Amino acid sequence: MKLTSIASGSSGNCIYVGSDKANILIDAGISGKRIETGLKALEVDPKAIDGILVTHEHIDHIAGLGVMARRYKLPLYMTEKTAQAVLNTKSVGKINTDLLQIIKPDQPFKIGDLSIDPTSIWHDAADPVCYCLEAGDVKASVATDLGNYHKGIVEKVKGSDILFVEANHDIAMLEVGPYPYYLKQRILGNHGHLSNDRSGEFLCDVISGNTKHIFLGHLSKENNFPELAYETVKLSLVEHGFDPKAKQIHLAVAKRDEVSNLAIV
Can you tell me the distance from the alpha carbon of 125 to that of 175, in angstroms, rounded to the nearest whole number? Predict the structure, then answer.
């Protein structure tokens, strides 16, 4: 299995996952042109994409969804409430409803040789989900936009060879930063975003002997730095006995505006 991000951050998110018999995107929160450029850098023909999994309807996850769907007739996988929210988002443009593939949390489905298990998450959206994907004996999990997490998410994500997890903000930077009070409270709440510290705690709960790659994603441009997210999470892992270097786990921060290095298992 192969996984990387084409873009990751509060301004736009798009993740590529490939297996022997499937190529998919998770979210399309940047322009269609940028998605195409990213796929070209990965040597993946956009026509070879088998579908787009949508986590939720916020614009940083669906900005290019309509363009990609119209241009390549791509199936779009999302929950029913998310689909209604997407269809009501004017900036996405018209989407052929025949392309909508309605999914339900905790009901796995398949695309090619990928088995995909969506799980409900806490976030201020219509019906947001994270995704666990398996091909053969390899598992990858993508969990971003988590205000907090619960035991059910931990159990689903455990055993992943590749983890893509949110590390959105540094709490101190957010608290003293320029955001209005209501927005700070939203981000810090159970339906907002994971802080660097909470991301480290989550990873300590889900890392297993299988884990080989960890991406930290969805960083806030205003309330975080890549180096700060990396060091905060790394320190948390080391304190809990999960030294990435000693355990040969590759820990990296997903790049905001360009394709990150490809994780291959």
Answer: 23
Q: CA-CA distance, 15 to 6, in Å (whole number)?
A: 6
DSSP tag of 90: G
- Please provide the size of the chain in residues: 265
Q: In what order do the strands lie in the sheet with 263-264?
A: 100-103, 76-79, 51-53, 23-26, 14-18, 2-7, 263-264
pLDDT tens, the chain, 265 aa long: 999 999 999 999 999 999 999 999 999 999 999 999 999 999 999 999 999 999 999 999 999 999 999 999 999 999 999 999 999 999 999 999 999 999 999 999 999 999 999 999 999 999 999 999 999 999 999 999 999 999 999 999 999 999 999 999 999 999 999 999 999 999 999 999 999 999 999 999 999 999 999 999 999 999 999 999 999 999 999 999 888 888 899 999 999 999 999 999 9
78 C-beta neighbours (distance < 10 Å), count: 27
Beta bridge partners of 120: 129
Helix residue ranges, H only, 29-150: 32-41, 59-62, 65-72, 80-87
Report the alpha-carbon distance of residue 66 to residue 167 in Å, rounded: 27
Q: Are 80 and 126 in contact, with CB atoms under 8 Å apart?
A: no
pTM greater than 0.70? yes
Cα dihedral 258, 34, 173, 197 sign: negative
